[in-house]
Amino acid sequence: MALPVASSLASRLADTLALARSQLLSARAPTGVWTGELSSSALSTATAVCALAVVARAAPAGMPHFAAHVSEGLAWLTAHPSADGGWGDTVASSSNLSTTALAWAAFGAVPDADAKYRAAVERAEAWLIRCAGGLDAAQLARAIIQRYGRDRTFSVPILTLCALAGRLGPGRAAWRWVLPLPFELAACPRRWFAALRLPVVSYALPALIAIGQARHHHRPTRNPFTRLLRALTRARTLDVLAEIQPASGGFLEATPLTSFVVMSLAGSGQANHPVTRKGVEFLLASARPDGSWPIDTNLATWVTTLAVNALGTELPREERPAIRAWLLAQQYQGEHPYTQAAPGGWAWTDLPGGVPDADDTAGALLALRTLGQDDDQVHKAAIAGVRWLLDLQNRDGGIPTFCRGWGHLPFDRSSPDLTAHAVRAWTAWRDDLPPAQQRRVRNALAKAARYLARTQRPDGAWLPLWFGNQHAPDEANPTYGTAKVLTAMGDLDAREFPEIGPLLRRGAEWLMAAQNQAGGWSGARAGPVSIEETALAVEALAIVAKSTGGGTFGESLPQALERGTGWLLEQVESGAWKQPAPIGFYFAKLWYFERLYPMIFTVAALARVASLPMARASSP
Fold this sequence. Notes:
The protein is mainly alpha-helical and 620 residues long. It has 3 domains: 1-30 and 456-620, Glycosyltransferase; 40-294, Alpha/alpha barrel (Glycosyltransferase); 298-455, Glycosyltransferase, CATH 1.50.10. The chain contains 25 helices and 2 strands. The protein has a two-stranded antiparallel sheet. Helix 1 runs antiparallel to helix 24 and helix 14 (300-311) crosses helix 16. The longest helix is centred in the middle third of the chain and has 21 residues, at 224-244. The chain is globular. It starts with 6 loop residues before the first helix and ends with a helix.
């Protein structure tokens, strides 16, 4: 393959890649793995403040004193609005209706906070009037419900918080705007849940129970049969809630979800319930010294697998056994109480609130392959992990996040980015599996390839589920989705799967056309360039170049690679490469960023370019 990378660029590449690798290695926690740091979140801070305020209002005997946390949380919100007076999910995010409404409501939940922080409250109200048309309960409710459509996973919690904070009017009347949730369905066997077509996504069972009970407490349905059914199942569904609450007290280790459960129970006469108490303990423990809360405690398993895969053979050999042992210890060995997932998967975190999912399981399988030493323990873990992913595959050939067959709401659908990651994991271990599992993998790969062919847009791009771009009109991120699919296609044998050739070519052409004049990429047309998106695009194009020989694209592919690589090198050399961007699309229109993402993605991209023959030959 001829890839005419200028010798000056190739020379810089070797030195800059060594520097980037060294700094990524030094970013590890004292335990030897990567923990990372999630952004502080106005949304999380607002929900935590409101939850603690509602519990304090009930003031049950023995409840710890946490007025300082409430005060510090409000002070942090006051200090971190957007320039327009609203709030975005992170300090780098644009203002949005959900977070601004939640922050405004948090001030209403705390006695005298409206007066103490009058300037911030008035600016928020002005923003909401511009966005929603007014502060009237009907206007706010209509705007919030419209934002999320038929998915009630986030619209109903937001309205619940507003009702508890007094922002939707007084007493029982406020709850007319909170759509009821059929919490009684949580008493059914779990295997029924996909068929029941719940109005919330698979991870939101705690919210379904707690918020549903709060709505029933404050404004029970007029239907006598449904009212009786909910009264009869109230105790049982509370038991379910207690059964799925992790030891840490934090559902999914997520501040918003835990906060919604805490405030809903406390606001409906259950402030002293064990679930409420454990949830409060989680919120107090996860508060940051500056008064804020992150969206989740950490992504330790996820960022560790990403870092291992980015470093590859450059990860010091003597340090691999400890990382391997840690990663093996994160694999779930029994059925998960939350989703009833079978053994064999991995979650995003090493903490008890994690739930096994497709992206993290695929990442862990790839990391185990990268770490080497495929002894019996590693081989056994890989077989279980591959089987877990195979069992997750939907009928359409795609891979969902948590649960097979939950295609009712957008979050639970199959998605190209998750499917591509599973393809890479299956391909990495395929030759070392038992014959029967090899055949299953071959069939699964064929189904996945057909799924990816169906989901490619007419312009050649793919849309992901888990990473969006806040600057795009529809908040989607075709740069991320296309890069992830192209990366997976580079692992497939075109002789075995001939259908991938045209898909890969069209996807690469779209990605090259999306590059801006400076050499970088955004997730949105004409949007701001980010380290993360540029690195992902460069890595994908380097893989395409290696798998195709580059000849299919003439000079366009090497030129795009050279410009993208040069842009990344400049960012590392200037020190700007560590600045994260909010590219996360987490839960329901919920944004975050992770401190390690730009570092990890940059190392992975530069390493791929350095592996190309001409880049290697030109290095000193």
